[in-house]
# Entry
Amino acid sequence: MSVSADKTVYLLLQKTVNEKAYGSIELNKALNAMADKSENPYITALFYGVLRKSLQFDYIIGKLCDKSPKNAIRLILKIGLYRLRYMNVPDYAAVSGAVELCKALGKGGASGFVNAVLKKSGSVKLPEITDGFSLSVVASFPEFLTRLLVNDYGFGFAKDFVLAETETETHVRRNGLKISDVDFALKYPFLKEKITDTGYYVTHNDLEKLEKGDYVVQSRASVLATRRYFRSGDKDVLDLCAAPGGKSAYLYELHGGSAEITACDIHPHRVELISKYARGTGAELKVMRNDATVFNAAFENKFDCVICDVPCSGIGVVNKKPEILLKISPSDSDALEETQRAILSTAARYVKTGGRLCYSTCTVLKRENDGIVENFLKENADFARDGEYMRLFPNTDGCDGFFVATMKKVR
# Structure
């Protein structure tokens, strides 16, 4: 591929890693601006690949360099390492490409250093997986998270989880508000081989063959979670942290339009995302701005079902958002748990007697899941568990990690 493509990846990594931008948003901007679309798959694979293997590459660079390279050179080395170790690129081409990238970025003075480090990088072998540290290196996972997972699930399961890779194709579901199951199958017979119990996994080329409105992009885990929220007969449903709107729109469809779905978020731009999503699907949602941590008297004792899909560490979706692993720190959990507890406690006041309170996250850490729910139940005798927790893992369910707990207001 061209040096310009590698430069695009470098600039994307710089924004995502050093400037804490959202990787998927920056990538979409870059791809849309590309004159030559043929390089888009390469750019996407290299960008996400470097992010996902970044911590592993830090280990390799540490073995090769006496002094830590500056951030810019470290990113160039990581691009070269990914091409060397994980792409079908000849070694000489991977090394020379990194050297050319140095020059294109005006850092030609470091090209000799980059050349030397990459040429001897093959001598660094990854450790055999025997403990939390070696697992964190091989899986490119922060060691503190690896140890939390081992503590929660045991070493064998934690190993399978952090090494698992989810489906790379896009998951979509049929939009039942716009097209019937029979008509969809007749219109898109080529999807027959791609069907799952929740929808279809499709390529970018497949998506271009689908008519907008006939389908909705929604992950398998999100579809399964929404089905868990659903109960026939609910008339008033509140989704407190609804952006971008996928679960709210699907709930409207599952209810056949018979339930009023109120979809909220705290930030105006995220509220607009919900509205846009609803317009695209045809779901008639009641969309409004609301702070889920602050009591809203207008909601008190009003809803048959209240959904709290709370902010979380996002460990279940790191294969889609690998920058999470580069930004998270041990101290983040305390702040997250405080927010999670506040949202759940506030949401409980909105549930009718006999109604349900649904708590969900896209993490698998028990401190953010079981810990939050069980502490809530201890402090709120008017709620009881309503069935088993739903747990999804990439290594057992082939989709993002997800957690759903449902509780019933018994008095």
The longest strand covers residues 351-361. The mean pLDDT is 94. DSSP finds 19 helices and eleven strands in the chain.
